[in-house]
Specification:
Layout (H helix, E strand, L loop, with lengths): L1 H10 L7 H12 L5 H7 L4 H13 L12 H4 L3 E9 L4 H12 L4 E6 L6 E7 L2 H10 L7 E8 L18
Antiparallel strand pairs: 1-3, 1-4, 2-3
Helix pairs in contact: 3-4
Length: 171
């Protein structure tokens, strides 16, 4: 039955998840290094069906990968900035050129397409304010199509979670 649902969901470009899938995702978001044995015990499944569900979630693209969460300040990048960007023009060519150039800048760890007055919001890390200034002067302002930018520096972090909020009202 589960295979049929996943086949139909894939065919319709959707995925059907139940409460067990959500429990698996919740556990993996808290600790991706958990063993399959421990995961299966926490979600009340035997190991083989649990592993099968994890593989299906990976194949469906719901689980996109696993990584370590690194503290930016301890790593040596204490400056975090959010940069709102407005393009000169919102043509297909300008957007593609801008996005391709952004992908090449390592200082930018996230780029979001936005609604409202600005077109994009970037999250940028730097070693110092001087390094951030150099990044803006010699890298960011040379990105094709950039119209205007505004920087907001984070003085501190109140909350950071890589885990998505739980979905409610599932079978």
């Amino acid at each position: 039955m589960l295979y049929l649902l996943l086949f139909l969901a894939e065919y319709a470009n959707i995925i059907c998840m139940d409460k067990i899938d959500l429990k698996i995702l919740g556990e993996l978001q808290q600790n991706a290094r958990i063993t399959n044995q421990e995961l299966s015990e926490r979600v009340n499944l035997s190991p083989t069906p649990c592993l099968r569900r994890v593989k299906l979630l990976e194949e469906a693209g719901i689980i996109q990968g696993y990584s370590a969460i690194v503290d930016p300040e301890t790593y040596g990048l204490p400056i975090m900035a959010f940069v709102s960007v407005r393009l000169e023009r919102q043509t297909k060519t300008e957007i593609a050129s801008f996005e391709a150039a952004i992908m090449e800048l390592d200082e930018i760890v996230a780029c979001y397409l936005m609604s409202g007055r600005h077109d994009y919001m970037l999250q940028v890390f730097a070693r110092s304010l001087k390094d951030y200034e150099n990044f803006v002067r010699y890298s960011l302002t040379r990105v094709p199509g950039l119209g205007e930018l505004e920087t907001y520096f984070a003085f501190g972090q109140v909350k950071r979670s890589m885990a998505l909020p739980p979905l409610k009202n599932l079978r």
